[in-house]
Amino acid sequence: MKSVFKVLSRIVSCIAVIAIVCFASGFSRTESHGAEEVEQEKLKELSKEIIVLVNEARAENGLKPVYAVPYLCDVSQVRARECIFQFSHTRADGSNFATVIDDNLIPFCYAAENIAAGSPTAEATFEQWRNSPKHWEAILNPNITHMGAAAAYEKNSEYGWYWQQLFIQTWEPTTELPGQYIPQRYEIVPQSTGDLTGDGSLNCYDYIVLLDYLNKKKLGEPVSMNDLQMDAADCFQDGLITEADAKAMQRFILGEYKTLPYVY
Question: How many angstroms separate the CA atoms of 17 and 169, rounded?
């Protein structure tokens, strides 16, 4: 009986699939699309950023986050590449986009996709989807449980950049898929002022991170602290990060200061 229901549900999901296309106007056919070659690692970072933006939007609307699944990101990459040559929810062989998923590996009862083209950034692409009611409906669907996302770039193609989101609903909301995780915007999240390593305590390791930041800043080299770390490094909470903050952190570690941020 369940197999019959599964077949019927899959048919319904394909019929009810969100057939939405988001073209970006104002982009030239082959110029101004960024570097000639885009590293695969960069594309993966953009894909992660898209999923983070999805979950941030869902949180703002009181919805549960969706899990990223490595396999779904892989097949999303397949779909993004396919869109370079045929910008459509239909694949080159005439089948529905959902056939890219092997349901023996990922059992699902519903699938939807968003596609977009033209923009080189995750934020601008996400705004395209935000401004399209059908795309936004897919992102805020309360029933989806897992997703994949991908970006593709082809210099001599019509739009240069191509984006895909793949959403699914598993048969049971609590189903765990291999490798599922919820991407975080920041790998290091400080727990308090001075906690630059994100381990919940303030110690010499945090002091070393701050000294490294100040030294690189002085030499004009790229710095690696994220926005949350930058805020946590401001031990005086005066909007500046200087040697004075490093001195305050040192005094706290030595027990001379009892609290951070330090207030005169």
Answer: 12
